[in-house]
Write a structure and sequence with these properties.
- By secondary structure, the protein is α/β, with parallel strands linked by helices.
- Helices cover about 45% and strands about 15% of the residues.
- The protein is built from 13 helices and 14 strands.
- The strands form four sheets. The chain has a seven-stranded mixed β-sheet with strand order 2-10-9-8-5-3-4, sandwiched between helices. It has a three-stranded antiparallel β-sheet with strand order 11-12-14.
- Helix 9 crosses helix 10.
- The protein is globular.
- The chain binds pyridoxal-5'-phosphate (PLP).
- Pyridoxal-5'-phosphate binds next to helix 3.
C-alpha cells in the first residue's frame, strides 16, 4: 500500500485528468448510430484546432508508431528517397521503419544533443539537382533527448532550396504542449499520439494532412490497407469510421480537447514554457548538465538530465520510485543509464512540478549523487515570480 497519488512524471504517457477518466467510463454506444456521428465530428474539428490546420485530420486506434507508418505508406512509393535526421532514439526508430517499408533513407548523423539543422536540410536539398528526394521526415520534439527542432526554419530552408519534397513531422510529444502550426509552417503530414500533451491514455494516433500530401497519396504505391487515408476521409465526412473506432477513447478525447480550449491553447503553451524553464533552473542549480545543448532547442515538455559518470541514472530512478512513488523517464538507446528524463507536460500545475523536482532532489541525496542542494528553491523562486 502506497498512500497518496503516484507521480507519473515520464514524458508520456502523462497523468490522465479525472474529467477525462470519467468521460472514458461512459457506456460505449453504437458507432454507426447518430449519437456517434456528432462525437466523431466534434473530435475531428477539435483536433484541427490543436494541429492549427484547416485540413483533414485522421484518427487511428493505434499508438504513435501506427501513425508514423500511416504517414509513410500514404505518401510514398517503394524505393523513394527520404531525408531523415538522427536527433535521437525516436528519429532512429522512424528511420528503421522507413527502411523496413522499402524506402531509400538518407540518415544525417547526429549526436543526440541537437535538433535538425535547417542549414543541412538546405544543403542536402540543393545538392539534389534531380529533385528525387520525396520527403523530409523529422521529429519535432525528441522525447529521448529533450531537444526540439525548429520546424518553421526547416520549412524556410526547404522553400529557399526550391525543393518539392514533402515535409513529414512527428509531434507525438509536443502536440498540445509546445506551440505547433501545421498550416502556417507548411507541414504536409503531422504525426501525433494521444498519451502526452493531449492527456489521454495511449491508444490513439493522428495524421494531419495537407492538400499536397493528399494529392501525393493518390500516386503513392507503398502497400496499405488498414492505414489507407481514403476510406477514412470518406467516412469521416459524416463523422463515422471505416472500422470500429476506439469509442471510449474518443469520449476522452472530446473531454481533453474541451479542457485545452477552456484553458486556451496560448496559455497551455505558456504554462509548459514556464515548467521547462523552472525545471532547467533546478537542474543548473543542482550543478547537473542538461542533455540539450542549444537553448533555442530546449524542450518545454521534458528535460533530459545527465548524471555524473560514476553513477547510474536507472539506479537513481529506481530509488526515487521506491522511496517517493514517482516514475521518471529512463535513458533510451545509447543514453541508457546515462540520463533520466523529467516529464513536465500534460495535466500538471506548479505544485505538481514542485513535488516532482523535490522527489528528484531527495533522490539525488539518498543515492549520493554529487549535487548542490537548492534546485527546488531555484525553481520555486522562478515559478513564484514568473506569472502565467
Ligand atoms: C517522439 C516520439 N515518436 C514516436 C513515438 C512512438 O509512439 P508510440 O510509443 O505511441 O507508438 C514516441 C513514443 O514515446 C515518441 O515520443
Amino acid at each position: 500500500m502506497k498512500p497518496g497519488r503516484h507521480f507519473l512524471q515520464i514524458p508520456g504517457p502523462t497523468n490522465v485528468p479525472d474529467r477525462v477518466l470519467r468521460a472514458i467510463a461512459e457506456p460505449t454506444i453504437d458507432h454507426r448510430g447518430p449519437a456517434f456521428a456528432a462525437l466523431g465530428r466534434e473530435v475531428l474539428e477539435g483536433l484541427q484546432r490543436v494541429f492549427q490546420t484547416e485540413g483533414s485530420v485522421v484518427i487511428y486506434p493505434s499508438s504513435g508508431t501506427g501513425a508514423w507508418e500511416a504517414a509513410l505508406v500514404n505518401t510514398l512509393s517503394p524505393g523513394d528517397r527520404v531525408l531523415m535526421f538522427e536527433t535521437g532514439h525516436f528519429a532512429a526508430l522512424w528511420r528503421d521503419m522507413a527502411v523496413r517499408l522499402g524506402l531509400n533513407v538518407e540518415f544525417v548523423e547526429g549526436d543526440w544533443r541537437h535538433g535538425v539543422d535547417p542549414d543541412v536540410v538546405h544543403a542536402r536539398l540543393v545538392d539534389d539537382r534531380e529533385k528525387t528526394i520525396r520527403a523530409v521526415a523529422i521529429v519535432h520534439n525528441e522525447t529521448s533527448t529533450g531537444v526540439t527542432s525548429r520546424v518553421a526554419e526547416v520549412r524556410k530552408q526547404m522553400d529557399a532550396a526550391n525543393h518539392p519534397a514533402l515535409l513529414l513531422v512527428d509531434t507525438i510529444s509536443s502536440l498540445g504542449s509546445i506551440d505547433y502550426r501545421h498550416d502556417e509552417w507548411g507541414v504536409d503530414v503531422t504525426v501525433g499520439g494521444s498519451q502526452k500533451g493531449l492527456m489521454l491514455p495511449p491508444g490513439l494516433g493522428f495524421n494531419a494532412i495537407s492538400a499536397k500530401a493528399l494529392a501525393a497519396s493518390r500516386a503513392a504505391r507503398l502497400p496499405k490497407a488498414y492505414w489507407d487515408w481514403a476510406p477514412m476521409l470518406r467516412d469521416n465526412r459524416n463523422g463515422f469510421f471505416p472500422y470500429t473506432p476506439a469509442t471510449n477513447l474518443l469520449y476522452g478525447l472530446r473531454e481533453a480537447l474541451q479542457m485545452l480550449f477552456e484553458e486556451r491553447l496560448p496559455h497551455v503553451f505558456a504554462r509548459h514554457t514556464r515548467f521547462g524553464e523552472a525545471t532547467r533552473r533546478a537542474v543548473r542549480a543542482w550543478g547537473l548538465e542538461i542533455l540539450a545543448v542549444n537553448p533555442d532547442e530546449y524542450s518545454n515538455s521534458l528535460t533530459a538530465v545527465i548524471v555524473p559518470e560514476s553513477h547510474d541514472a536507472d539506479r537513481l530512478r529506481q530509488a526515487i520510485l521506491e522511496h517517493y512513488d514517482m516514475s521518471l523517464g529512463t535513458g533510451l538507446g545509447r543514453l541508457k543509464g546515462k540520463v533520466f528524463r523529467i516529464g513536465h507536460l500534460g495535466d500538471l500545475n506548479d505544485l505538481m512540478l514542485a513535488g516532482t523536482l523535490s522527489g528528484v532532489e531527495m533522490g539525488l541525496a539518498i543515492c549520493r549523487v554529487p549535487f548542490n542542494p537548492g534546485g527546488v528553491s531555484a525553481a520555486l523562486a522562478y515559478l513564484s515570480v514568473a506569472g502565467d
